[in-house]
Write a structure and sequence with these properties.
Blueprint lengths: L1 H7 L4 E3 L11 H27 L6 H30 L3 E3 H34 L4 H4 L2 H19 L1 H7 L16 H5 L7 H34 L4 H9 L2 H23 L5 H26 L1 H17 L1
Antiparallel strand pairs: 1-2
Length: 316
Amino acid sequence: MSLFNQTIHNHQTFTLIGIPGMPEKDFWMALPLCLLYSTTFLGNFIILVVIKVERSLHEPMYYFLAMLAATDLSLSLSSMPTMISVHLFDWRSVTLDVCITQMFFIHNFGGVESGVLVAMAFDRFVAIRFPLRYATILTHGVIIKIGAAVLLRSVSVVLPVPFLIKRLPFCRSNVLSHAYCLHQDAMRLACADTRVNSIYGLLAVIFTIVLDALILLISYFLILQEVLGIASREERLKALNTCFSHICAVLLFYVPLIGMTLIHRFGKHLSPIIHTLMANIYLLLPPLLNPVVYSVRTKQIRQWIVRAFCGNRIGH
């Protein structure tokens, strides 16, 4: 009888929330949220357009930057539909299948971004260690294979997640903690044993995020060794300067991620607003600021933006 009741009450929809405890102010989140997404899309789209039209940027470093911009666009598009629907239209209900689809894309593109950052670190190491063979090592074919490997790894790791969630019954609360769906958030609402989900989620994080973080640390240790071996101080500074934008992108991705993880594990006593804020920063901040960092630090991109938006006025 209890099994029958559980089946009857198995939720097929979830309720999304915006800022916990402040539903009356959710509408006032819509305007800055729409502005944030618009800026994110414009910034990453400009990066992609400039790299395509500027022949001087047809180099391995900028091809990897294009991968990062495309990933940031995809990650933003994954969270945008429900974020906008909750804060702008107060549409808070989402079906189980839609929720599972969204969590797949969010986790997938998060893994892709981590992998692209590793590929960019490898690019910087090759450029500094083998400057004369840089273009022959990182050919178009190699870059395409690296991009495909990064995407395939992330898809392979995240693909079991929808099936692991789909098998669980949800007969308790159906209220999620955010305005979008995450695996760990949906998993806590299940009224069944979730040890398989927890173990797989931990292994997935170790195989992607933790492994990538270790590779990034090793890469920059090797890069620093190479830079210190350069005789000229000016050349050392020039080599380090080529890594600055990538270091910023790594920090923008990993610092919010580590903060969100620590709060999720050890900050259960903290206000739900803190949890929501950290999760939103992790999802929204890197795609917003990565184009800003690279636009400021890359002369060709900066000049193209100035010509595109101010060219006529400058010409007069």
